[in-house]
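Q: Start with the shorter request: fold the first protein.
A: Done. Sequence, then structure:
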Amino acid sequence: MWATAVGVARVRALESRRENALFRDPLARAFATAGGLWPSSPPPGDEAARLRRLAVSFSIVIRTRFLDDLLQRASASGIRQVVLLGAGMDSRAFRMDWPEGTRLFEVDTAAPLDFKASVLRQERAVARCERVTVAVDLREDWPAALTAAGHDPAVPTVWIAEGLLIYLPEDAVELLLARISTQSAAGSRLGLTLGSRGVIERFGADAAPGTAASLWVSETPDDPVGWLAGHGWEADSHTLRERAAAYGRPIVTPPQREERPGGLVSAVRR
C-alpha cells in the first residue's frame, strides 16, 4: 500500500510547480520518479477515472496546506515533538522551518522508510530538525517502539495522521486514536484527515483493483467533534470546500448532497 505515498508525492510535485502553489515540496518529484514509480495516467477515454484522479489530487493539495498550517501553529505554541504516523514520502522535516529543539518522528514500516532513505541520500537532503525514523507496523505495538526511539509522552506532541485512517477499519481507527491519546500530554495537538461521508460510494465502488480508492474502508464519523471529545480532545472539523475557499482555491461546482462536518480535523488534548 505504501506505493500510494508515491502517488501523493506526484501530486505535491505538480502543485509545487504552480506559480500560486499552496506549498513547495522540493523533494516530491524525486520521490515520485525514483525507480520509475511515477504513476501513469488513466487510460484514454476513461473520463470517470480522470475526474476521480482530479478530485483526489485536489483533496491532497488542500489537506497538505491544512496540516502545514496546523504544524506551524503547534510549533508557535511551543511544542517541540512531532509524530507523523504512516509518514510515507512526507518531507516536512526537510521543507518546513522548525524551531530549535524540534524532534520529528516518522513512523512507518521498513519498506517505505528504506525507499525514502535511498532517495534522500541521492538528493543529499538535510533535515531542518532532528529527524527520527521508527520502523514499525501500526498494527503492532508502535507506542513502545516510538518511546524506545526517544518520544516523551510526558510533554506535548503534535500528531499527524494524513491520508491514513481511510485505509483502516473502524476498530483499527479506534485503537489508533486510543493509543495516540494515551501517549499525549495535555496541550498536545492532533491533525487528522478522514474520508468524507459518501466518498467510498462515489470513488471507491468502481475503482480499479489495487488503486488507492479500492483500498478505502472507513469514512468520517457522523459527529467527528463528539467522537474526539470522547477520547479527551477538543476538536474543530472542516470540510474540504471550506478550507479550499479559505486558501483561494474555491470549489466551483455545487455540492451533490448535504455536506456534513468534514474530513479535515484539528484538535487539542484537554
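Q: Next, the second protein, separately.
A: Sequence, then structure:
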Amino acid sequence: MKIMRLGHSGSEQPAVLVPSVDGVGQYFSLLPLTDDVDGGFLAAGGLDKVRKALEAGELPVLEGADALRVGPPVARPGSVVGIGMNYAAHAAESGAEPPTIPVVFLKPSNTVTGPFDPAPLPPRSAKYDWEVELGIVIGREAGYLGSLEEAAACIAGYVTANDLSEREYQLPGAAGQWTKGKSLPGSTPLGPWLVPAEDIDGGNLPLGSWVNGAPRQDSSTSELIFDAPTLVHHCSQYMRLEPGDVILTGTPEGVALSGRFPYLQPGDVVEVEVEGLGRQRQELFRAPAAATA
C-alpha cells in the first residue's frame, strides 16, 4: 500500500497506489476518506481506514493518475527534523568522529517539495550537495517518550527523502551555519509515496543516489548509527513531535562534500532511491536573483 498526493502544487489530492501482479498497479482516490494526507488524517488512524476501505472495495479508481504531478506524500509538515552524521562512513568523509548522541537540526517546512519537481540552485551557490535519506513520518504525538517501543508506535511510515544542502552556507567559514545550508527553497523533496511502517522494515533498506546517471551513494539503513525508534525517542525528549512531522535520518557516504565528486551545477540530474519507498529525480536549475528596484 503506497500513499500518495497527486496534482498541482498546493492542490494535490490524496490517493493510494496498490501494486498488482503485473507490476503496474492501480490508483484509487482517498477523497471518500479525507481531503488530504496530513497530521489529522494520520492521527485518526487514516492508514488503517485506507486498508479497510481497499479490502471492502469502497474506494473509486482514480482515472488519469499517471498523468498527474506527484507531490510530497504528506501535506506540509509542522516540523522537518534533520539528523546529521548518522552513518559512520559519512561522518568520516565529513572529517568528524561518529556521534555518540544524535546530531539534530531543523529545516523549514516550506522546503518540502515533490519528488520530481525541478530543484533550484541558489543564485550564488557553489557547493550544492545531494543526500539520500530515509524519512520517518510521525503518526501520533510524541513527547518525553519512555521507551523505544513507545517510539516505534509513533511511526506512521517511511518515505524517500533528498536533503539538498549548501555546504558553503552550512559549514565553518564565512558565517557558515547548519540552518543556512539546510533551509533553501525546494531542498527537501519527499516521496514519491508513503509506505506504512507495518508494511516495510525501515531498518534494513538499501538506499542510493546517482548524478547524471553515475552512482554516488550505495548503502543500507542497517548501517544507521541511531535507528528510527531511537531517533523518535531521542527527539521527543527535546521537542514535541506531532502527527505529519518528518524526521530525516541522515545520509550515507558518497556526497560531494567528500571531495570525490563535483558539486551540483545547473542542468545536472540527481536521482535518489530507498528500496521499497520509490525513486526521485530532480533536474537542477539556477534560481534567479531578486530584481533590484
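Q: Describe the second briefly.
A: The longest helix spans residues 46-56. Helices lie at 39-43, 46-56, 88-93, 148-153, 167-170, 178-182, 228-236.
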